[in-house]
Records
---
Amino acid sequence: MSDHGRRRGRGGRRAGDSGTSEAILVAARGQFADHGYYGATIRGIAAVAEVDPALIHHFYGTKEALFSAAMRLPVVPSEVLTAALAPEMRPAEGELGEHLVRTALSVWESGQLKETFVGLLRSAVTNEQAAIMLREFIADSILGTLARLTGLSDLGSRAEAEYRVAMVGTQMIGLALARLVFRFPAVASASVDELAATIGPTIQRYLNGDIAIPDHGPPASGAREPTNLSEL
């Protein structure tokens, strides 16, 4: 029997849970890097890993969870947001911005996540493909979830919803870069509560305050419209 045949086994599955899981993660890293978060598919990752696609769902459940595991993120962002905005945790409407900033900072700076998160940010700053991959993941997992949980996705104008949640993204990504990558002294030395009090009102305004919404008109001929709010 060839090495290839011994490796695949019955049904294309590798022997041993740990070996199978690692093969999936290696394949996922390559596919996400090559095709971005949207372009990589469970079926494509399964083909590279030589496993049944159902096995990926068995190990990781969702594409988002697979990406988090492949990038060595100890949390799944949509799950963190869902927990933070659950009815028993959700603050008064006017305090939502501060709550989101405080939640993000507490997650970013946890011992398990900080090093990996900083590495992803640095890669995105210096590598275009890494930037595309991270941008698409943030749009799908974080901004799309935030739009749904805050009711932005229910607005009559999808353009307004997309603009508002994207502005939240600019503020939070800028904060992450300034505090964790560039380490501007005033930002790096500020406490979580100080940053939440300073930046929270801006996040709040982006979510439901008075801002100018640009009118881009209909999409250009041949342009692909996003299939859902998360594809910003």
---
Amino acid sequence: MTNTKRIVIIALVVAAAAGAFFLKDREAESSLEAVPLDQAGAPVNAAPEQTATLSDEDMAGKPRLICLGAERCVPCRMMVPVREALAEEYPDTLAIQFVDVWQDRSAGQRYSIRMIPTTIFMDADGDELYRQEGFMDKEAIVTRFEALGIDLAGDT
């Protein structure tokens, strides 16, 4: 095989690989764009717990669930209905905070996270009790709080 043929074959392989990566990236991007955003870039119909900060009044006397992730991270997006269900079921006994680490770059360092999503369980005083890396469903979160001695239902 001549050098010219080798160069042409290598160029075709590189072009095909680049095309495949480009199409895959566009496909992933288009599937992420399916989430409707408002003018500020926030998801439409986002629950109040999606905000990056909670007031002291919102957290006063409540255990906290700090969810670190990113709106464009698929496992993080899977956590949205979980947080919404928890906020709906435990509005008076649990403070939920979502921090987008791609928008707030310092949060990753501040919370010492290694991957997203990361869910941090805190007591009412703001002391970390446990952290989970990766997706966690609602039942697992409630069970973890119970194992930590926190009754979200408020039963005594």
